[in-house]
Every structure is written in structure tokens, then in C-alpha cells.
């Protein structure tokens, strides 16, 4: 097939060569135009390539940004980097601090040497506090005072005469028997000095040592009789009837002496510190135990109370539960709600939620508010609790 095509092409070429006078057809006259077009395209392509090469060879302009900042150094300005400026500032501060520290240290040392520290320390243990051998001769601060701020607006007497209430209060405050009893229950609400004493573990421990040294059985009867005399018409009866808060709360505190004494004098089994002292000076988030000691004073626990579920809490509520046997005590009205609130936090059964069996106090038939029979039971319970832990 190839040979046939070759023969045909050769014959055609021979025939054209044998006819020199043959004129090309119109079809073959357009061929030079095609070559011209191809040449023009090649020229354009070559010029484009040359243009690209020329652009690539041209130099590129670079913008250099100077990040340095002016910094005053002595009497002249210099250009420094930000890191250099920071280092210069730090060096200047260090130099300034060093120059200022020497007079300050000498001043402080002179103040320290000039001042004389006079402190009194006590070792806290079971029993009365005893000054340590390293104590100075400075006298200890006085104990908090009961009624250290009395109001002046007392009600007049039965016949319009000036009230005898302030005189009656001053009389029993000066009485040596009252001072020996030193009732804790009367310090809670109306003693600013007691509030200040609670800021220090040493101060509140001294206060509790004094109040817990009293003969509780005797003082319970004494305070009950004093509460009866307080609201007599010739004393502070008119103010009590008028709802004077000082007299009303004083009467309530006298009646609540026994349960407050029993709870306030409890000690921690491990450390021997007073439970109340720990609760009053507690600096943690759990400060709810301090509210427990107001239950016998007809105060309820705040709804946000978060108690410390320890042995002090359990023993305090056990004392209160026994005290509810005397239904005349306000603790009989506030105990159940507090117990349920505590069990919600500490777990079911942590404390007893029921009142003790009612007991008629001795002397009640004669109309005398004598010592409650539950007090002896509470004392026995405290002994059992103490030796059980």
C-alpha cells in the first residue's frame, strides 16, 4: 500500500515537472498568506517572552520599617528597640528602689527598736487559764461587762414617778453573787465588750473560764429568782410590759441561764478547747455552729446556716434535747426545727429531732421558777458524752 502511494506521488511530481507552463490553481495561491500569519504569531510570542524577561530582571523596591522608638537618655534622644527600652526602664526602677530602701530600712529598724511589745499569753487547757512563765507584768484586760450600754428611755413607775428600773439593774450588777455567776446568756445580746472579746481566742477563752467556774446549780436558781424580781412593778415591770427590748431580753437570758451554761462550757474531746470559742473565732466558711448558742434565747437558725458536723455540734444538740424537758424554756420551741435543719446537712439521725419527755420543774407548783430538774440529767449526760469519746 505504501509502495502504491509512493508511485502515485512520484507520477504526480513527474507530470508537474513536465509542464512548466502550468499555472497554479487558486487554491495554491493562498499558501503564502498562511506562512505570513505563522510568522506574525511567532514574532508576537517572542516579544512577549522578551518583555517577561525584562520585567523579571528589573530591580524590586523593598520598604524597610524602623520599629525603634525614641528614648530619652540623659540629655539626648536615642532610637532603641522596644526590648531595649523595657530593659532601660527596669534598670532605672531597680536603681531607684535601691536608693530608697536604705533610709526606709533604717527608719523601720529605729521604730522596731523604739517600740516595746507588751503582751499576755495564756495556755488554753481544761481548767482555768494560767499565765505562762514568759508573760509580762502587764495586767490582763478586764472581762466583758454585762449591760455595758444601758438605754435611758425607761418607763415611769406605777404612780408616774421616775422609773426604778435603772437602780434595780445597777443593784444586781454590783451584787457579788451575780458577779460570781457571770451568766454567759446575758453577754450575748447586750454586751459590746463581749462582741470584741470574740475576736480573739485568748479573750473569749478567759471569758468562758470565768462563766464556767460558777456553781451552775446554784446560779440557775439565783438567776430564775432574779428574772422573777426583774419584772415586778416596782422594778422593771412597766418596761417589760411595754416591750422594752433590753428588759425583755434580759428576762429571757436569766431564764435561759442553765441551757446556755451547759452548751457554752462544752469542750472539744481532742483539743480541750471550748466548743463555743472555736465556733466564735472560726475563720473558715463553716461558721454555722456559732448560731447554735442563740437557740435557748428564742432565736432560730438562719436558713443559710452550714454547721460543722463534728462532735461539738452533736454534744451541744444533745444538751439542748435534754433541756427541752422543761417546756417553759424557749429551747423547747426552737429545738426541733434546728435539729431537722442540721440533719439535712449532716445526714439523717445525726441529732435527735424529737423533744425530751416533759418534766415538771421543782418549785413549779409553788410558782417559783427554781432550778430545772433537767439540769442534773444534762450534767450526767455531759459526763457520759465526755468519757465516751
What can you tell me about this protein's structure?
It is a single chain. The chain is mainly α and 389 residues long. The chain has a domain at 141-388. 51% of the residues lie in helices and 4% in strands. It has helices at residues 2-17, 31-57, 82-114, 165-174, 176-181, 192-197, 201-212, 216-230, 237-241, 245-255, 257-264, 275-280, 311-323, 331-346, 374-388, and strands at 69-73, 76-80, 122-123, 130-131. Strand 3 (122-123) and strand 4 (130-131) form a beta hairpin. Helix 8 runs antiparallel to helix 11 (257-264), helix 11 packs antiparallel against helix 13 and helix 13 (311-323) runs antiparallel to helix 14. It is elongated, with a radius of gyration of 51 Å. It comes from Parathielavia appendiculata. This is DUF7729 domain-containing protein. Residues 101-113 have a biased composition (Low complexity). Residues 143-354 form the DUF7729 domain. InterPro entries: DUF7729 (IPR056146).
